[in-house]
Amino acid sequence: MNVKEFKKIISSKNEQELPGLMAAARQETLKYFGRVVQLYTPLYLSNECVNDCVYCGFHRQAGIKRVTLSSVQVLKEARSLKKKGFQHILLLTGEAPAAVPLDYLEEIAAKMKELFVSVAIEIYPLEEKGYRRLVKAGVDGLTIYQETYHKATYKKVHPRGPKSDFSWRDQAPARAARAGLRKIGVGFLLGLYDWRYEALKLAEHLNLLLKEHWQTQFQLSFPRLNPAETGYQTGYPVSDKEFIRLFCAFRLLFPQIGFVISTRERPEFRDKLLRFGVTQMSAGSKTSPGGYTLGLKSGQQFEIADHRSPQKITEVLLKAGYDPVWKDWERTLT
Q1: Phi and psi (nearest 5°) for 281?
Q2: Nearest partner of 213 among 244, 188, 181, 242, judged by Cα
Q3: What is the pLDDT of residues 244-271, one digit of tens each?
Q4: Is this structure's pTM higher than 0.85?
Q5: Among the CATH numbers 3.20.20.150, 1.25.40.10, 1.10.1740.10, 3.20.20.70, which is that of 3-325?
Q6: Are the C-beta atoms of 145 and 188 separated by less than 8 Å?
Q7: Helix (H) or strand (E) segment spanning residue 163
């Protein structure tokens, strides 16, 4: 598929096309990924943030208890996740470099490297040298969403704080790729602006990244705007059928790119998406620091829709004929 055909698919409102798109997307997924789905889980290190993102439960003015876990607390959380079988972990923070400095992140990454096969981060954008430091400490993956590619909307929903710099965030995946990160996830937040516009811009962005950084493994995610403690109401809701159209269109345009689905989506919808695109999914997620074992009342970034345990997710995958994989690569190979 080319970009012209992609644009035609996402622009169409003909629901009778969906079964054919779903079948084609399923065929492409099976061709390149088989029936393997890799499992991971997020571990929130901190909810400190200096931004005023209007849709996020961690924003600067939110009346929540601010917490940054100590290395001892992080290890307790991490070991509990390790016991559940996880080999891939995603470390998350708000955007507060003073509270969560690079030295702290290096220390945590080095400890996590001893426990997990893969250590990825979803943190504030760094300079290239900052990413290089984390790669050296053991980080191999990055997730960084542009949130919205529509500049006027971006400015509106990020009114204050370092995140208000559109270009600095937009260029972060390229900086990370140059720094040597093995896997980089990009995407946009469904609900901030018209998803069709966002899809075209994301496709352009990913095409550029693939051209300039062919050695990097990129992946896509389409997190949907869920309720948060801000009470933000979207003016651009995305229906399940529109989500499926978006998902299938990207699978056909980028058949060899991995797709990630988080616990933002309802259990039955996540199970449905498995059939035509998902290659990686989170399980048993908590979106607040200390949420797994510490019992800290620190507020969550957004509401989770799928509360099933990792064991239950595994059962669902096996029953549907998929192979849940806890470990998909070995550090010694690189």
Answers
A1: -145, 150
A2: 181
A3: 999 999 999 999 999 999 888 999 999 9
A4: yes
A5: 3.20.20.70
A6: yes
A7: none
